[in-house]
Amino acid sequence: xxxxxxxxxxxxxxxxxxxxxxxxxxxxxxxxxxxxxxxxxxxxxxxxxxxxxxxxxxxxxxxxxxxxxxxxxxxxxxxxxxxxxxxxxxxxxxxxxxxxxxxxxxxxxxxxxxxxxxxxxxxxxxxxxxxxxxxxxxxxxxxxxxxxxxxxxxxxxxxxxxxxxxxxxxxxxxxxxxxxxxxxxxxxxxxxxxxxxxxxxxxxxxxxxxxxxxxxxxxxxxxxxxxxxxxxxxxxxxxxxxxxxxxxxxxxxxxxxxxxxxxxxxxxxxxxxxxxxxxxxxxxxxxxxxxxxxxxxxxxxxxxxxxxxxxxxxxxxxxxxxxxxxxxxxxxxxxxxxxxxxxxxx
Length: 346
Fold this sequence. Notes:
Distance between the termini: 52 Å
CATH topology of the largest domain: D-Maltodextrin-Binding Protein, domain 2
Helix content: 40-55%
CATH superfamily of the largest domain: Periplasmic binding protein-like II
């Protein structure tokens, strides 16, 4: 009996060592990350709180995906978030940062689809642009040459002579990563010399293919996408970049700009015909599952068909349902909390 008691105490001590005692002092689930995913997670959190009155309502902060990942990967314990909202997949560098700080098991759950939308105020002159047009308009050094374009007509003679002024996300935002990966890089790599540079001079390639201008043509509008909406209304002819849900929510005030002839819409994003189509995620810190009450229930609430399915309540917030197979796979992960690995991360 004494031996058994000692063994039990040792086991408990090991658990405490694995999850710092300080983690048990916070009872609210803490969620950080993407401003795009924020309204969806906020809605789920409110439903979760009503369904679980004995558990404090989650705290949801809009920090941007990149800044949120730094907080999430900072370590294990009460001082570090439990869940990360992300408008892109976690990066390999972030995954490694997590591991270095003891966050060794993370569950990835794809919660739906969204489109990085280009929009302007009602009646704006810009209607359709190509990926190359956008790249030539906002890149700091398109194809290695200083950007001297002042109007959209300077970029493409068939476009209006409207001054280039694009309000977009900062470097801490997952939407900024989507801008680089979905729009700027494909346009840049259409140039064989740039594609070759990627193999020989990665730093130079990143500056040319991902760097945005700093002369006023591109305006860092912060993490508040609603602020971009206000800027577009106050400054006719300007253009904004943000998640589709904000465009849909403000359809009476804004107009989507087609890219390569495809307008942002629920149908074009779900079919991935729209160039800005992307998946959205939440990441759960497995080490906190026992220490912070309700994380499993929260993940389960997110993964309900009535939440994120084709007829789920998040549709009214602008979330688009993932394909059936992806949704079923993510729902399984939300139940089993299967840790992800680094395969496929960039």
